[in-house]
Amino acid sequence: MGVKEYQQYCKDKLLSLYDSVDVEWNPFKKFNVGNKQYCPRLDIAVGPFAINTRLESQYNRLLSERESRKFIDSLIKFNNDNVRNIVTGSETNFEMMKYFNYNARCFICVEIENKVSRKHIVGGLINASALGRIAVLVAWTPDKLKAFLKLKNYLNFLSSVEKNSFKTDNVLILSKEQFKIVVDAINIG
């Protein structure tokens, strides 16, 4: 399965849990900024989508719904497994994520990185964290998984030594196989 098919497959699975899911979503389209501002498109975005207003109460509700929480806990488990097994770093927990990025544009942002440079990986991490209440970085290859984990550790290190940094408490890093396992496990009923 290629990246585009994977995106569509995951979108279809996520639609059984969430009301609105989009691929290649442009969070700034309605602002009509043209070519005067960088406007990332998100590989997969789970709504509701905050365009002209903040939606923290809706996101808080989704965080507390049983099936959504089960889905998020599975993402956290895989992320923490990766942190323990691939790099030494800070594990994530639900409480850290619950109170992060109240002014998100979407509930869950998924960025899938395949054949990109480390600079693109930095951009994907920053975009996902800034735009999603929960940010999921899906690494297509083992080397991208390691690069994402090392980058997140580096940003945490900069913060710990009081350097300018970007907070990534809402970022979860999974392989493409791990994310597929989690979306395949979605079971509403």
Mind explaining what this structure looks like?
With 189 residues, this protein is an alpha/beta fold. It has one domain. The protein contains 7 helices and 5 strands, in the order αββαααβαβαβα. The protein has helices at 3-14, 56-64, 66-86, 94-98, 118-131, 142-160, 176-184; strands at residues 21-25, 42-46, 106-113, 132-139, 171-175. Strands 1-2-3-4-5 form a 5-stranded mixed beta sheet, sandwiched between helices. Strand 4, helix 6 (142-160) and strand 5 (171-175) form a beta-alpha-beta unit. Helix 3 (66-86) packs antiparallel against helix 7 (176-184) and helix 5 (118-131) packs across helix 6 (142-160). It starts with a helix and ends in a 5-residue tail after the last helix. The model has no long low-confidence stretch (mean pLDDT 90).
Residue share in helix: 40-55%
- Spatial shape: globular
Order of helices and strands: HEEHHHEHEHEH
Tally of DSSP helical segments? 7
Report strand %.
15-25%
In brief, what are we looking at here?
It contains seven helices and five strands; from the N terminus they run αββαααβαβαβα.
Keywords summarizing the entry:
189 residues, alpha/beta, 7 helices, 47% helix, globular
Helices and strands, with pairings:
Elements: H1 3-14, E1 21-25, E2 42-46, H2 56-64, H3 66-86, H4 94-98, E3 106-113, H5 118-131, E4 132-139, H6 142-160, E5 171-175, H7 176-184
Parallel strand pairs: 3-4, 4-5
Antiparallel strand pairs: 1-2, 2-3
Helix pairs in contact: 3-7, 5-6
